[in-house]
Amino acid sequence: DVKVTQSSRYLVKRTGEKVFLECVQDMDHENMFWYRQDPGLGLRLIYFSYDVKMKEKGDIPEGYSVSREKKERFSLILESASTNQTSMYLCASSSPLDRGGNTIYFGEGSWLTVV
Amino acid sequence: QKEVEQDPGPLSVPEGAIVSLNCTYSNSAFQYFMWYRQYSRKGPELLMYTYSSGNKEDGRFTAQVDKSSKYISLFIRDSQPSDSATYLCAMSARSGGSYIPTFGRGTSLIVHP
What we know:
Chain A is mainly beta. Chain A has strands at about 5, 10-15, 20-25, 30-40, 40-50, 55, 65-70, 75-80, 85-95, 105, 110-115.
């Protein structure tokens, strides 16, 4: 089974703090994603990466950055946390289409509260 | 107009009912169609995946795609209280080597005993 592990399930951070959300996948997937999910807004793509050290902006990249130094690990960074970044963050991974990667697999989610 | 429309519900049904969950979409290039189930405070888990039009059955679940109408459905037979969750549809088109799905906002389903 594909396993996507998000190291922190629940975090409480102060406004202005730098926050790191870590994600590791064990299926050798090339593609990795970070989403946030808010009530009534659904899943919104923040960033994705299709290879090590490669990244692409999603729909809502403002206030976030990412790092992918190793294939299995994709980190989401909130440079200066703000209360409007209180949300559930979901990491996901998939294979490229030419390797049969037609679906993505999610982690359990990280609940971030910024106070 | 969003690319993928999904009624948020909630949809409340008695145990044993047949449930129909639906999504409509506007992008005719979509080829891959998925349904995810998400329990409260958990990540979405892949439930079913289909390619192009037609039906696919897996146990109590049937996924249906009608590309001519740009309409997909998920049917749940003999619904159980454990089926209570939010159901997200997702779909994508081939775009180079990457796969970026577009998600519906999810339908909340409540199956009461």
